[in-house]
Amino acid sequence: MSLRFIRMMKWMVILSLFALAVSDPPSRSRVVDVIWENYKTVYAKSYAGTQEEERRRAVWEGRITIIIQHNLLADTGKKSFRLGLNKYSDLTYEEYLRFLNGYKVTNATRECRVPWVPVDNAEELPDRVDWRVQGMVTPVKDQKLCGSCWAFSTTGSLEGQHKKKTGNLVSLSEQNLIDCVRENNGCNGGWMDPAFELIKKENGIDTETSYPYTGIQDSCFFNEFTVGATCTGYVDLPEGDEATLKMAVATKGPISVAIDSSAESFYSYKSGVYDEPLCGNDVDSLTHGVLVVGYGTEKDMDYWLVKNSWGETWGMHGYIKMVRNKNNQCGIATKASYPLV
Known about the structure:
There is one protein chain. The protein has helices at residues 3-21, 25-42, 50-75, 93-99, 149-166, 174-180, 192-201, 242-251, 264-267, and strands spanning 81-83, 113-114, 129-130, 205-206, 227-229, 233-236, 255-259, 269-274, 288-298, 301-307, 319-323, 337-340. It starts with a helix and ends with a strand. By secondary structure, the chain is an alpha+beta fold. Helix 1 packs antiparallel against helix 2 (25-42), helix 5 (149-166) packs across helix 6 (174-180) and helix 5 (149-166) crosses helix 7 (192-201). The mean pLDDT is 91.
């Protein structure tokens, strides 16, 4: 039995106990004490003093209440997805928006952009795509408390295109982009197009091994002798067109996209097809850069298979299924792009 499965079962039991304890106030505190200690152990949590721990625990308890209420609706078929705990469940909503998002469009130049050219026989596209099966997706990464999602989205699509062209899957350096893309703002946000521009101008991007992630912006240490992949340009897809995004995912590979992840439900997503009517789909609503690695249909709901950069404790081991063909929900097709190699 895998450790991942054991942890999943543990948290199912924990959430059930929490729900039962609510109806018995005298025992509630003891049950929650045990759950809190388990949470700290599983996610290696430590806090700077009793006051800070009490503050974090209060946030965490509120999160569990939200999770239980939502999952009761999911159990009765009123929600298409479930929520769960992750290592960020002790962050406030404001901290979540500040540290775990970071998509911001700037006025960067676009010298390397190439027009999108539709492919032939679009009606023959497969009903399901998952580029992980083809070995075009690296393991889930973790941006930590740094608004560098744009860098992870950039490396993810380039890793896929490099694998498709060369046959080698190379993990690329997000830190290289955080430190060196001056048009963006490092841990304070940015977007993917300027990153593609820099990679072309510098004739490459370092490997993850040669330029490891720290999650703190520093001086640029790009090394032309440890390049892991190159980029000859990039393509911006037509804004808001899910049919074109499907075409690109099916025929090109993993695609960089931006989404509105500001709804609190996204923060605690665990499984199922994410369908959130509070999501915006215009450019100003976009808050987070991610990677579409496939699509499909589950229980009659079309979905996009999306790789996030919040580690494997979030979502479906780092992935989310976002509803597809529903008015470009969460803006997933509003700012989609991919690199050329």
